Amino acid sequence: MYPNPRTDGKRKILIGCLILSVSPALMLACNDLRLRFLKNDMANLVRQSIIIICLTFVIIKLMITVFRSNEIRALFDGINEDYEKFNYLPEEYQQLVAETIKKSKSLEKIWLIIMSVTASSYPVLAGVCTLYSMMFSDNPRRFMVHEMEVFYLTTEQKYESPYFEILAIYSIFVVGVVFIEFTGFDGMFSVSVFHVSLKIKIFSLNLKYMFVDATDTPTIKKRIAKFVKDHCEVSRLIGEIQKCFEIWLVGIFVNAILQTGMALSQITTNVNKDINGVYYLFAVATIIHVYLPCYLISDVTYNAAEVANVAYSSSWEMVEDVNIKKCICLIITKAQIPIQFRALGMITFNMEMFVSILQTSYSMYTLLRK
């Protein structure tokens, strides 16, 4: 996922090949969706819709990594430069940096485990059901990784060799692509937002000690100018993140509503009971998938709002210069304006939106159950 300029050409070719390799699975799912619609098979129609939305989202993210490669590269180059500067900060600042890195790594590991379990549940469950049926059932049958109709093959033929094995291998490959994309691209957003929170905490710490060991007005004014510069850099960084990931954020919003409602509907259906268990994991993973950006962005908003309290507690009243006191008032006023992440200027991500998504998803679930 990392836009390395030295391998930019190879990377674009590889991403193009991945898109082409996933497209047949999307076509098969769309064809199956069409057949389910003609048969008025609502349960399987919803099941295929879940896969179609997932694969479409994967293709969109792959395309974003190509079309936004320059912006993403600039974003991560800036983060790398910041971490080089952090190496020369005092010990208290170093602790903030180490804590942020630890949290970022922990979150990546948790999300990696969740996606590993969710993605592997499809082939693992299909394999277990097939083995159990072969060993203990009077009428043994094979289970596909994802049940769907296949072009030019009858229902009986797709379970025969070598078609069944080819479809199984291809399905596992598609699952692997989905796993890589949902961990790699989404991880880039987490790293970026964690970095915003870190920069806010660092200039808040600068603000806390702004009047310490500073008896002359010029030194204090230089520190205020440095704070304003750092604050502007954070605003610019937030703008860059929104530009790189705004389409992805909209996709998460739509994906969470549709996928959660459909997964809950699939769990409670009486069709395909043997494989419906995977949708428990799917629903949980989808909810966590939208919860994480909402939580991380809310953390940025909280840290930015805390700047006002830090500024008010920074012993500014001990300074006699009126202009400096006015600057502190402006800093407090500016900090009281909430920092928000907007996708395409319409969708604001925060914990309130997360609750709203869950409510809408449940409404969709009740609608599908009728």
Written description of the protein model:
- The protein is mainly alpha-helical and 370 residues long.
- It has one domain (5-369).
- 78% of the residues lie in helices and 2% in strands.
- The longest helix is centred in the middle third of the chain and has 51 residues, at 217-267.
- The two termini are 42 Å apart.
- The model has no long low-confidence stretch (mean pLDDT 86).
Give the helix/strand layout.
Layout: H1 8-39, H2 42-67, H3 69-86, H4 91-136, H5 163-208, H6 217-267, H7 278-312, H8 322-335, E1 341-343, E2 347-349, H9 351-369
Antiparallel strand pairs: 1-2
Characterize this entry briefly.
By secondary structure, the protein is an all-alpha fold.
List descriptors.
elongated; 370 residues; 2 strands; 9 helices; two-stranded antiparallel sheet; mainly alpha
Rg, please?
Answer: 26 Å
Q: Major sheet: size, sense and barrel closure?
A: 2 strands, antiparallel
What is the topology, as strand order, of the major beta sheet? 1-2
Quaternary: single chain
Helical fraction equals over 70%
> Helix/strand/pairing class, anyone?
mainly alpha
Organism: Vanessa tameamea (Kamehameha butterfly)
Pfam families: 7tm_6 (PF02949)
Subcellular location: Cell membrane
Keywords: Cell membrane, Membrane, Olfaction, Receptor, Sensory transduction, Transducer, Transmembrane, Transmembrane helix
